[in-house]
């Protein structure tokens, strides 16, 4: 296979990182994995699919040195959660070379701002709206189970004129179409986990307060209910209306979750989310105590999807002066139960007006 990039680095050895590393190595790329636990690897990774077929890939190296991981790399996949991106970008900056591609999977969470210095140093940033499939580690440093491969992928890049080549590369790796989006904001506002997870959590733990203990850990998707669907659809509709306010940008690829899941009503959405086989048995982010179960506020569902997901949508609404009561109510709930008021703000990057926003995303 004639791939555009051969020297690949993968930052992170978790679910998505393991999948990406194995896919790239199986296509005969030279793959280096950056992991905090390199001793857990024996050099070969495996992907097990829904039919228990196994794909293997041999790593070139695994290292806990970021310098060793990315020096000389042509293409760097970043699979860290959103709250770690800015710190990672600062650590990567001394080793960035002109033309190096930094691909964030998924590319939400304000990645375009976290990696802004890397872009100025000559790197190319790209981000996917969604990851290629559901991935769950079976053994760290060895095996990941991947199910529900998407029919197509969507990405954007900065600078924009680099996107086509990157999309062809991604398409070759996963052997599915990869389409180019008109701007990176279409990635940032993707209504995936930032609405999906936050709507579920805020209804699941709606009455939570310090000291409250739950008798069981419910299935996050398998026991999805109408209350969660109602809030999800309400937040999704607010986002769609927000996108319409951005009249100087093509936001048509920020597809409604009602279209994504082919579910126009609350009942249909509940039935759909309960029925997704690859997600059905996932439990909620909770910790078991001696007395029962409590929410795990250190889970990525909380530490990424609220402050670096839904908060971006909330803050953008303030910039365009568009009220979104359901999204704001959900963020208020998060702040009240966690006490965390730190989250993404466009003003931290000099964006105060709609014209400031257009100046960033029309480039």
Short description:
The chain has 363 residues and is of the alpha/beta class. Helices cover 37% and strands 17% of the residues. The radius of gyration is 20 Å and the shape is globular.
The appropriate CATH architecture of the largest domain is 3-Layer(aba) Sandwich
Name of the CATH superfamily of the largest domain = NAD(P)-binding Rossmann-like Domain
Q: How many beta-strand runs?
A: 14
Mind describing the biggest β-sheet? 8 strands, mixed
Can you write the helix and strand succession as a string? EHEEEEHEHEHHEEEEHEHHHHHEEHHHH
Determine the CATH topology of the largest domain.
Rossmann fold
Order of strands, main sheet, comes to 5-2-1-6-7-8-11-12
Low-confidence stretches: none
Rg computed from alpha carbons, rounded to a whole number of angstroms: 20 Å
Q: Into which percent range does the helicity of residues fall?
A: 25-40%
Which structural category do the helix and sheet elements fall into? alpha/beta
CATH class of the largest domain: Alpha Beta
Residue fraction in strands: 15-25%
Shape: globular
Mean pLDDT: 96
N-to-C CA distance: 33 Å
Number of domains: 2
Detailed description of the structure:
- By secondary structure, the chain is of the alpha/beta class.
- It folds into two domains: 7-188, Rossmann fold, CATH 3.40.50.720; 193-361, N-(1-d-carboxylethyl)-l-norvaline Dehydrogenase, domain 2 (Orthogonal Bundle), CATH 1.10.1040.10.
- It is 37% helix and 17% strand.
- The chain contains 15 helices and 14 strands.
- The strands form three sheets. An eight-stranded mixed beta sheet has the order 5-2-1-6-7-8-11-12. A four-stranded mixed beta sheet has the order 4-3-10-9, with helices on one face.
- Strand 1 (7-11), helix 1 and strand 2 form a beta-alpha-beta unit.
- Helix 8 crosses helix 13, helix 9 crosses helix 11 (266-275) and helix 13 (306-319) crosses helix 14 (325-338).
- The longest helix is centred in the middle third of the chain and has 20 residues, at 226-245.
- It is globular.
- The model has no long low-confidence stretch (mean pLDDT 96).
């Amino acid at each position: 296979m004639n791939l555009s990039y051969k020297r690949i680095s993968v930052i992170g050895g978790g679910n998505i990182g393991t999948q990406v590393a194995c896919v790239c190595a199986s296509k005969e790329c030279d793959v280096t994995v950056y992991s905090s636990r390199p001793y857990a690897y024996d050099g070969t990774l495996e992907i097990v699919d829904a039919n228990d077929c196994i794909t293997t890939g041999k790593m070139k190296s695994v290292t806990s040195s970021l310098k060793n991981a990315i020096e000389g790399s042509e293409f760097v996949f970043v699979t860290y959660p959103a709250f770690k991106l800015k710190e990672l970008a600062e650590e990567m900056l001394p080793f960035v070379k002109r033309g190096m591609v930094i691909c964030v999977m998924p590319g939400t969470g304000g990645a375009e701002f976290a990696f802004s210095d890397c872009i100025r140093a000559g790197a190319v940033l790209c981000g996917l709206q969604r990851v290629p499939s559901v991935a769950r580690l079976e053994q760290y440093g060895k095996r990941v189970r991947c199910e529900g491969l998407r029919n197509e992928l969507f990405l954007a890049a900065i600078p924009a004129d680099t996107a086509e080549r990157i999309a062809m590369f991604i398409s070759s790796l996963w052997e599915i179409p990869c389409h180019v989006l008109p701007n990176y904001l279409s990635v940032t506002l993707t209504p995936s986990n930032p609405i999906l997870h936050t709507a579920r959590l805020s209804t699941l733990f709606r009455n939570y307060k310090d000291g409250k203990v739950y008798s069981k850990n419910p299935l996050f998707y398998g026991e999805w209910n109408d209350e969660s669907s109602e809030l999800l659809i309400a937040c999704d509709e607010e986002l769609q209306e927000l996108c319409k306010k951005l009249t100087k940008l093509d936001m048509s690829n920020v597809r409604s979750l009602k279209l994504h899941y082919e579910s126009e009503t609350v009942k249909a959405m509940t039935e759909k989310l309960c029925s997704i086989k690859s997600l059905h048995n996932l439990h909620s982010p909770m910790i078991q105590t001696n007395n029962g179960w409590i929410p795990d506020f250190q889970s990525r569902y909380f530490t990424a999807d609220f402050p670096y997901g839904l908060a971006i949508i909330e803050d953008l609404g303030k910039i365009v002066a568009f009220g979104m009561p359901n999204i704001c109510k959900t963020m208020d709930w998060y702040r009240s139960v966690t006490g965390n008021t730190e989250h993404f703000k466009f003003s931290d990057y000099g964006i105060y007006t709609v014209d400031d926003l257009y100046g960033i995303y029309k480039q």
